[in-house]
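Propose amino acids for all 485 sites.
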């Protein structure tokens, strides 16, 4: 088939592959989150991740893409592409990107999905599924689409100020982090937090999820170049460099603070490095990415303690990782960006540029964080009044998996209860005190009296219960210690 005029087959293939890589990130995120919650809630996290892919996917086709990229209004798109009925029409201001509009729409869909999925980590272990569903329908319309229009659409007010966000440091991570903070406040603290802490129930899940995120992030950042060229190469190399540096920085902070570097900390460090480099991936050099990763890894390792200082229960540290690292990376663009890496960008302050770029980056971070927090808080509060956001204390204690979904992630290994089958009753046993043992007389000896033995009481069997004293049974030793989360 002959390609339409202006369509680059190589660029189209690269963006299609990148779209598939980004689609893997949401299941990876669900595993990452699922490993960190108690075993009784792991299926709930996986279900919320999959449901987000479905709900946001439908919303994006119906109205989300049009609100994010339609029209030329500086604050919100229009309804010209509702239902994607005219999806072959070029996106306003992006007519010459070299890929079909339908491919661009699919790539941006994956960004919308993973942004919404990031939020579920903050109200984990207590968010009612009946409130989660309407939230995931409304949030992409009210929050994600306007923010994406501000920055990704050429007509958006932030884009007009000259802000640079290569792959979504503000649109995705600052946005989701601020929304997560709002939902953590609306839903409230977990039962017993912070006095009762919980351990991640499955650290291999956490590491597997981090690995899938790392892998998918090459499409997240590399695909944002919208072409298979030099800029995409910088994005891939910078992505790995920043993630590796952040892992080392987080581990070093843990070693200095607690004496041990943990696998959970290593996985968290990888994610915060990936977050921090996202807005800068196609604008900075590899040494700049190394510095960004080191700074983000060290600061985020400290920032996760903010929830204890300020008293908000962000269960899986979405604020400390995504909001903080996203802000660090977005501001870093104003310092390290280089036109030698990407001629379509600008020079940051350290590359001989002016303060205008740094100012645009800071302004956009503050505006996105404030808008996302306020609108999400209002949306969460409204849903709380209508359907209630939080499960009951009983459900929270028993677990969301069984209570909300009727399933359990792990088989206990105990045999199932026998099933009663109609049939003749089993033969009855002879009554005690029958022909073998003599009459059952109160106080009669029960061992050896009818067999020629002495009438001594039955001796205790080996392995029986421990002896008791007048004060009662011997106390049992305490079981394992408390968790660390």
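Proposal:
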């Amino acid at each position: 088939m002959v390609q339409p005029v202006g369509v680059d087959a190589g660029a189209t293939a690269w963006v299609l592959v990148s779209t598939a890589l980004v689609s893997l990130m949401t299941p990876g995120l669900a595993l990452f989150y699922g490993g960190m919650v108690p075993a009784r809630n792991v299926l709930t996290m996986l279900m919320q991740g999959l449901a987000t892919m479905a709900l946001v996917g439908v919303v994006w086709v119906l109205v989300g893409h049009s609100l994010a990229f339609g029209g030329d209004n500086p604050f919100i798109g229009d309804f010209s592409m509702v239902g994607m009925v005219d999806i072959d029409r070029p996106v306003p201001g992006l007519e010459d990107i070299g890929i079909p509009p339908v491919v661009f729409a699919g790539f941006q869909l994956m960004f919308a999905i993973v942004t919404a999925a990031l939020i579920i980590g903050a109200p984990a272990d207590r968010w009612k599924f009946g409130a989660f569903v309407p939230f995931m329908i409304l949030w992409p319309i009210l929050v994600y689409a306007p923010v994406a229009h501000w920055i990704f659409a050429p007509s958006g007010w932030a884009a007009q100020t000259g802000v640079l966000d290569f792959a979504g440091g503000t649109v995705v991570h600052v946005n989701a982090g601020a929304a997560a903070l709002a939902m953590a406040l609306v839903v409230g603290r977990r039962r017993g937090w912070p006095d009762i802490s919980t351990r991640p129930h499955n650290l291999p899940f956490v590491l597997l999820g981090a690995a899938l995120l790392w892998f998918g992030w090459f499409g997240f950042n590399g695909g944002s170049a919208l072409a298979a060229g030099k800029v995409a190469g910088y994005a891939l190399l910078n992505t790995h460099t920043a993630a590796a540096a952040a892992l080392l920085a987080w581990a070093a902070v843990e070693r200095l603070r607690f004496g041990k570097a943990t696998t959970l900390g290593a996985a968290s460090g990888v994610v915060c490095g990936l977050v921090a480099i996202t807005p800068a991936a196609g604008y900075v050099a590899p040494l700049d990415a190394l510095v960004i990763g080191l700074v983000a890894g060290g600061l985020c390792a400290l920032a996760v303690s903010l929830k204890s200082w300020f008293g908000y229960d962000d269960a899986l540290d979405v604020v400390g990782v995504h909001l903080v690292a996203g802000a660090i990376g977005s501001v870093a663009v104003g310092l390290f960006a280089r036109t030698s890496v990407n001629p379509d960008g600008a020079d940051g302050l350290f590359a001989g540029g002016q303060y205008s770029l740094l100012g645009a980056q800071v302004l956009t971070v503050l505006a996105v964080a404030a808008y996302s927090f306020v609108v999400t808080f209002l949306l969460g509060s409204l849903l709380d009044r209508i359907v209630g956001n939080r499960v009951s204390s009983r459900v929270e204690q028993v677990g969301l998996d069984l209570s909300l979904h009727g399933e359990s992630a792990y088989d206990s290994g105990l045999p199932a209860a026998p099933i009663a089958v109609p049939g003749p009753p089993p033969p009855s046993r002879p009554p005690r005190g029958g022909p073998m043992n003599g009459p059952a007389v109160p106080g009669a000896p029960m061992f050896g009296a009818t067999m020629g033995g002495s009438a001594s009481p039955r001796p205790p069997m080996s392995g029986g219960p421990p002896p008791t004293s007048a004060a009662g049974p011997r106390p049992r030793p305490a079981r394992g210690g408390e968790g660390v989360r």
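The mean pLDDT is 88. Residues 88 and 101 are 6 Å apart (CA to CA).
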